[in-house]
Write a structure and sequence with these properties.
This protein is an all-alpha fold. It is elongated, with a radius of gyration of 13 Å.
Length: about 70
């Protein structure tokens, strides 16, 4: 495997881990709010941190799969 490909694969793994960690750390209230008001901009309010676009995209995928809600 080339180093460039390995590096890209490692970045994807880190992005997914970070998104999974954010999802795991959401409070029940935050999850309920996102399900009732599926607004992507609320994610950063609940995480209290600046998310990269890649992490936000991965989080959206994970959240939508987990809670069967389409975030807008």
């Amino acid at each position: 495997m080339s180093k460039a490909f390995q590096s890209e694969d490692n970045e994807e793994t880190e992005t997914k881990k970070e998104a999974e960690e954010i999802l795991e750390n959401l409070t029940d209230e935050a999850i309920e709010e996102l399900c009732e008001n599926p607004d992507v901009t609320l994610i950063q309010c609940f995480t209290n941190e600046e998310l990269t676009d890649e992490v936000e995209e991965e989080f959206i995928i994970l959240f939508e799969k987990e809670y069967d809600v389409e975030l807008e």
